[in-house]
Write a structure and sequence with these properties.
- This protein is 67% helix and 0% strand.
């Protein structure tokens, strides 16, 4: 409903929810792991699953001019990013930090339009989230498949509810 609640929500999603899981999946893919199906299994709702697949496909198409490794057509977004970054020798830690910053910026952009918040408020939230982004990147450095999971239940329940609404401003 405001800048403060957005900050709290994003902090939780990054540190304990889908942001953290995405960071782990990205790292596993960067290391050569075959985690596409696992990534799809971690999606809390059909809409989040579809979003991840659509973004993964779009990312692979956008990266194609620079050369991409062979990958399944149905590749979730964090897996696609990790796979392409590794293929191009981009450091895993740098990739995770950039991914999480983009993850947060995308959600802030939606909140700026929906809440509504001003652009300056959105930038303040992103600036404050910098420490959470860095901490989440560091906390996932040694993570493996057993570390997947989360406790951002309200976010997951909201996603499940959202996909059944008649009218929606955003797909996910």
């Amino acid at each position: 409903k405001d800048e403060t609640t957005l900050l709290h929500w994003l902090t939780d999603v990054l540190a304990h929810g889908s942001g953290r899981n995405d960071a782990i999946l990205l790292r596993l893919a960067h290391r050569g792991g075959d985690v596409a199906e696992l990534a799809l299994a971690t999606a809390a709702s059909q809409e989040r699953r579809d979003e991840s697949l659509n973004q993964g496909k779009a990312f692979m198409l956008a990266a194609a001019p620079w050369g991409t490794p062979s990958a399944p057509e149905d590749i979730p977004y964090p897996v696609a990013v990790g796979t392409v970054a590794a293929h191009h020798g981009i450091r895993e830690d740098d990739t995770v930090a950039a991914y999480l910053q983009g993850f947060a910026a995308n959600l802030i952009s939606a909140a700026v339009r929906l809440v509504p918040l001003g652009q300056t408020a959105g930038l303040r939230v992103l600036a404050v989230l910098e420490s959470t982004i860095v901490a989440t990147a560091e906390a996932t450095r040694d993570a493996n498949e057993d570390d997947l999971g989360g406790c951002a239940f309200r976010s997951d329940l909201a996603a499940m509810h959202h996909e059944t609404q008649y009218t929606r401003l955003f797909r996910s």
